[in-house]
Amino acid sequence: MTKHLSRTLLARYADREAVLDEVTMWSVETHLEECADCRAQLAGGDALLDRVAAAVDLGIAAGPDPAPRRRSWTMRNRWLVWHLGPWLAMTVAVLGCAVLLQALEPRVPLVSLLAPVAPLPGVAIAWSRRHDPAWELIAGTPAAGLAMLLRRTAAVLVVVVPALALASSRTGTSLALALLPCLAFSAATIALGGFIGVYRAAVVLGVVWTLAVLVPAVVTVHVPAVVQPGASLGWALLTLILAGLVATRATSFRFSKE
Amino acid sequence: MRTVTAAESAPTTYPWAVHAQELRVKAGRHLAVDGLDLTLDTGVHGLLGPNGAGKTTLMRALATVVKPAGGKLTLLGEEVDARADLRRIRRGLGYLPQQFGFYPRFTLREFVEYMAWLKEMPKAEIPGAVQRAIDRTGLTAKAGARMKTLSGGMLRRAGIAQAIVNDPAVLLLDEPTVGLDPEQRLDFRDLLRAVGIDTCVLVSTHLVEDVVAACTDVIVLNEGRLVHQGTVDDLIAQGGEGDAGDSPAERGYSALLRRHRAEAAR
């Protein structure tokens, strides 16, 4: 079949309104089945789609720019980047140094000794009147309280926990001994924070751990019992108890401690 | 315009928006509010007092930022104590602190939106409410500007915008007119009068003229105690002498303070 369908016939076939007798319809369709040229002609023959597309493009160009998509969680968590970022970067850097030092001196388990205090700078800064410029504004909102404290602590742990996991895998420290003390001390900071404020709680716990465990272990080059593998269960229990304590004392966080 | 829902126009179950009895509040170790009795309802209440009178500490206690050290404080019908539903109270509060900072990289709109979110407003209402608050404080043109690029007066107005964004039942404004130029101060007084129709507004200020222009009544604090609560006319009726150029209300205010100090000294 070499003869192609006429443009007029194709146009009438394409037009829903036009009346086409059954025999012509049938012959057109038979031809279309076999002839790619005429199919192409039929598809592109009507400029309607092109015209519509052009008109839509024009309308879009003439109208106002689309509103930028609001990514509310990015906005809500942007304080984290600007406000908490430097402190978290410092924490990660210290852990990195600990990994290097432990490689040089494997007898001191520096990573597991630092694990409990690793989240403390971030947690202390996350909700402190001195470091949060918007503290006064936020303290009087319904969102303030334990929920906000937990949300911000979680934001800190999201960075500190993977950093600790990485450090423990680099040094061969048991994962439980890196993460459980970190969680236990985070819970302890919040629990104690209900009484004296989170910032003070973090300072107290950090100083106590440093003086009682970290410094003696480094000076005497011996591994304290609390960071030996047998202590994992103890840390897990401590974490659970402290988390339970925080849950029962939720009301003491309603007024923000300074 | 504020739209009033059926729930809001129904009679409220509490007699006063703010009710304090023998209220004591500490600022650090110092008892800055010492045995205050105060009852406030809808209207614009001006809070006057010399420096250190306890104005800011009282504001912070009413904003539930500090816990009262003693006495009884009732906000929106709920006693602020160990068992209070603070979240419910706080949803109905608007608070402009005397000094506040914010994350400098937020734009003004993001700042007000973030505050609306912290005030637990329904998600669908936030964009409209934020736009309204920004418009009412005359900051429409600055909505996209970063907080760090705003001038002192604009930051003050941004603070007012976040305070009114949730249509609070109790609005606490601590020195809202500081840094505003004269024209902005006039606009602010208009805003106060409009908001005060259905809201309990407490405005602390050291400018007696602000109180005379926009407040329905005046509260004078001195050394943590209530010295005077009454209309502006009551304040003027206190008489007293002053320098030339002092308004009658300013004279009345100084006379009140002098009398209170003399009584305290005796």
Automatic annotation (TrEMBL), chain A:
Protein keywords: Membrane, Transcription, Transcription regulation, Transmembrane, Transmembrane helix
Classification via Pfam families: zf-HC2
Residue span(s) of domain Putative zinc-finger: 7-39
Domain of life from the UniProt record: Bacteria
Entry's transmembrane regions: 79-104, 110-128, 149-169, 175-196, 203-227, 233-252
Protein name per UniProt: Membrane protein
Naturally occurring in which organism (per UniProt): Paractinoplanes tereljensis
Automatic annotation (TrEMBL), chain B:
GO molecular-function terms, A-Z: ATP binding; ATP hydrolysis activity
Domain ABC transporter: 18-248
Alphabetical UniProt keywords: ATP-binding, Nucleotide-binding, Transport
Keyword Transcription attached: no
Pfam families: ABC_tran
UniProt entry tagged with the keyword RNA-binding: no
The family this protein is said to belong to: Belongs to the ABC transporter superfamily.
Protein name: ABC transporter ATP-binding protein
Organism of this sequence: Paractinoplanes tereljensis
